[in-house]
Each structure stands twice: as structure tokens, then as C-alpha cells.
Amino acid sequence: MAHLGGSESKREQFRRYLEKTGVLDGLTNVLVALYEETEKPNNALDFVKHHLSGVEVGDTEALRLELTELQQKYSALMEENKELKSRLCQYEPANEDGGAE
Predict the structure, then answer these.
(1) Which structural domain range is residue 71 located in?
(2) Residues 61 and 50 in one domain
(3) pLDDT tens digits for 6-25?
(4) Quick check: is 98 in a domain?
């Protein structure tokens, strides 16, 4: 019987942890949203994942597009930086002693 009591204590601690961190509220909200759907989704697990992530499908595509654009800009800027450094070295050769003038 003592083992059963210890197990209940661990369960209670875990329940309090889930409550404290907001997991129970989050899951409850998602399940309520699923319950209130007039047309139930074919895949309830995808519905739950989607609602827990907090990111809309359209947002994901927009973010991917923005990421691609930013990666291209980054590459272009890195190339420009490399070219400018090269041109600068032609006009201002580095001091051999490494010190500033």
C-alpha cells in the first residue's frame, strides 16, 4: 500500500507541474476548440498540433518566403563585403607590425 501512496504523490506532483506551466490550460483550450468545431477535422491530431503550435499555415509559407529572401540578401551582402574588403586592401595595405597609426 505504501507504494500506491508514493505513486499517487508523484502523479499529484506531475499534475501540479502541468498546471503550473500552463500545459493543462493549453490542452484544455485546444480540446475545447476541437469540441466546438462544427465540422470535425478528419485528423484530430493535426488539429491539435496546429493549434498548439500557434502558427497559421499561411504564416508558415510567408515565413519560408521571407527566410529565402533574407538568405539571398545575406549572400549578396557577404559577397559585397568581401569585394569591398578586397578593394580596401588595395588602397590601405595592412601595417606589418599590426598596430594602429
Answers:
(1) 56-92
(2) no
(3) 667 999 999 999 999 999 99
(4) no
